[in-house]
Amino acid sequence: PQRIYYLSLEFYMGRTLQNTMVNLGLQNACDEAIYQLGLDLEELEEIEEDAGLGNGGLGRLAACFLDSMATLGLAAYGYGIRYEFGIFNQKIVDGWQVEEADDWLRYGNPWEKARPEYMLPVHFYGRVDHTPEGVKWIDTQVVLAMPYDTPVPGYKNNTVNTMRLWSAKAPNDFNLQEFNVGDYIEAVLDRNLAENISRVLYPNDNFFEGKELRLKQEYFVVAATLQDIIRRFKSSKFGCRDPVRTCFETFPDKVAIQLNDTHPALSIPELMRILVDVEKVDWDKAWEITKRTCAYTNHTVLPEALERWPVSMFEKLLPRHLEIIYALNQMHLDRVAALYPGDTDRLRRMSVIEEGDCKRINMAHLCVIGSHAVNGVARIHSDIVKNSVFKDFCELEPEKFQNKTNGITSRRWLLLCNPGLADVIAEKIGEGFITDLSQLKKLLDFINNEAFIRDVAKVKQENKLKFAAYLEEQYKVKINPSSMFDVQVKRIHEYKRQLLNCLHAITLYNRIRSDPSKSFVPRTIMIGGKAAPGYHMAKMIIKLITSIGEVINNDPYVGDRLKVIFLENYRVSLAEKVIPAADLSQQISTAGTEASGTGNMKFMVNGALTIGTMDGANVEMAEEAGEENLFIFGMRVEDVEALDRQGYNAQEYYERLPELRQAIDQISSGFFSPRDPGCFRDVVNMLMYHDRFKVFADYEAYIKCQGQVDQLFMDPREWTKKVIRNIACSGKFSSDRTIMEYAREIWGVEPPATKIPAPNLPRD
Fold first, then answer.
1. Which of 370, 496, 501, 763 has its Cα between 20 and 30 A from that of 430?
2. Residue positions of the PTM N6-(pyridoxal phosphate)lysine (predicted)?
3. Exactly one of 15, 332, 490, 725 is catalytic; which is it?
4. Residue 670 clears pLDDT 80, i.e. is over it
5. φ, ψ for residue 584 (rounded to 5)?
6. Is 709 in contact with 611 (CB distance < 8 Å)?
């Protein structure tokens, strides 16, 4: 079959035990067996460390995709790096984020199997020699890549795929070559330099930090993986008729490489290098093979997130790849110049090389010219990709650009984390929805079924009680389980506008204070997420949230009508607990900034209602469920663009809206930081004078929309009917559907229809 290779620098897997039991259909059997040993399975599950080899959406998407590819029976492999330290553990110390190393392998990892027999060399540095026999990359430093395989089981289909993660190992002669005469001890200690490549995950989400170690990581995973892919292609009896299989004609028919963002973009020049320099394939033929093999997924339109590597760094680290990129760019620009004679500005815009004081390689442009398909991750995002980010490229090759709206796996994000809800659904419509989430549509028949309404509401209440107990046990915080659980969990970033949520909390607080006798809908506002360690503003936002909580949660006038809780160390295993308990899901990024979002989908399928902007996949969620069944507010992309042309003036909103002014004045006067009144001046200064994400422009609409949320929450029956309608319309957002679209429209494979028999049954 054609093999699919999903290349990603992040796989945010979380825990594996329960997922494996669910997919093998063994959960009840194991539960019973463990119980008979006098143990509690849930207690055992809590001992497992999360595999936190990702930052957020991009890494978690890769994990969902692996589950779906296995469940659909595709011959797919996930390839990445086995980081010794994953995303840091977050501690909150007097309101501030403090990072702690995530030593997740401390007690070993039972799910992985080292495969030293497949260890491969990866080359760095050196120089290029142009000889009559061809090009040679010589005098390189070698690092070994040791593969570790983790099984990826499909859902009850007797399929197990592989995730292969590479770990860096120094060769035994490392630094002990002829020039190192003396210090043997020093040389052995220097092995760490090579092995640092797989030491730690870079903790940036949607931000590019041009560090040499990161570029080494990117080449390391690409070089090891491509050798593996080519070995497998050559030794496969389907590879080619050629007895020694040096014929690469059939390569794109047997191999599909999906690049998860630009991080594995070096696959393009590396495949060219292998084909041309090593396998002696003709350059133009090699370029055709490369383009037909690779496809690129874009994950963000934020300019600060785009990878732009200094040419000087490439010159030193990967000199041959730099030559190849220059040649590919020349070929590309020649074609553009022929089509648009005299349009030098277009050439500048479309070049892979950006000129300037520091010449840089634009990795996104490299991906676009080197792939046969480029996709965004939600319809609105794919439109922005086509019409602005890669506008020139889209004019050149419109057929290249596609949309593949993200999805989530219903196994982890419904069956595993919310068995109560899965049960009441299965009672009504059977179990088919687990592998065909579109069947949730059948729930529309039960929207007015009193018993079903009651059952759905009961499951939610049980989940809320369970989460409240967990918070009390872990963090010693008592919350009111009958309050609205208003949740915003995601990485902390200005564009995600946790600050807008803060302003609402303060406004609610001020309303209670100004009329304590009035009746209010009780709320527990929960905000969680990690800030990149070097992102000052994000860390200030966390301090602001915890400071607001300090004041509100200790004000006797407020009582249990309002609480603000910061959820410490948000991660996959915590998401599995909080999402099923949420009533309200906050998806409030500035329109045009969140490529898709996937947390939004998890909340929807788990019976929370969404308050959100028309951004990312929210647009399609509103389309599926009906806009009136979400709480949609604020500027659309067109409004944001219009405001940009007009000039955004925060002062104007500050002066016009008294509740906004009061909230900002409180933050800036030190009301929430009495021991350090100037604590939040940077935050206020940003909001007032250089807020790229226009928090104030959506404040009024947001507060009004939150009022509508309160209104509906006071009518539990109507609220639950909206919940049921949302669940029934969430079927599109299954990663099974997403992967089916990738398979058919990008990889050119049809998921196999034939069932694989169980291992204990005879094969045909």
1. 763
2. 602
3. 490
4. yes
5. -125, 130
6. yes
